[in-house]
Design a protein that fits this description.
Blueprint: H1 2-29, H2 32-35, E1 37-41, E2 45-52, H3 65-89, H4 93-116, E3 119-124, H5 138-153
Antiparallel strand pairs: 1-2, 2-3
Length: 160
């Protein structure tokens, strides 16, 4: 079981490092924070700088410092709860990977809020005549995939 729990930790560390590395490359080295937009494979993949002060899709977004710290605290509490829960309940490989995805992504966005006061979002994807106005990052993808994975891969086994 220790081996499986290590998968959760390894997944979380990989997601966290990948998230922060992509932000350093795109936001700072490619200077997206100043340029604002870089078309990579339009319209499928574009880089669009967006500083998200709220939660998904900018909900609860404002420049209030209290909101920033509440969102940081909330992410840390949820991450701690997921770690506690997965340690207590265990789970299969996919559940543990899902927990690592969620926690690694949440901590990546926490670091953004601490360093920048907002989450650095920059991935923008559109297709088939739909112009997507939203941007996201590696952490956002990981949080979403991890949450879905925890729903799908955890819970009591059903007996017939």
């Amino acid at each position: 079981m220790t081996y499986l729990r290590n998968i959760a930790v390894l997944t979380g560390v990989v997601v966290f490092v990948l998230d922060q590395l992509t932000k350093v490359i795109v936001v700072h080295w490619m200077n997206l924070k100043s340029v604002g937009a870089i078309d990579v494979l339009p319209p499928v993949l574009n880089l669009r700088m967006a500083w998200n002060r709220g939660i998904n899709f900018g909900l609860m977004a404002n420049d209030n410092d209290l909101t920033r710290w509440v969102l940081i605290a909330l992410a840390l509490v949820i991450s701690a709860w997921v770690v506690w829960w997965i340690r207590k309940e265990g789970g299969n490989r996919w559940a543990l990977i899902s927990a690592g995805l969620l926690v690694g992504g949440a901590l990546g966005n926490v670091i953004d809020r601490i360093l920048y006061g907002a989450v650095a979002d920059f991935l923008n994807m559109s297709c088939c005549g739909y112009d997507n106005p939203y941007a996201f990052n590696v952490a956002d993808i990981s949080i979403f995939a991890g949450a879905i994975g925890l729903i799908v891969f955890t819970g009591e086994k059903k007996t017939s």
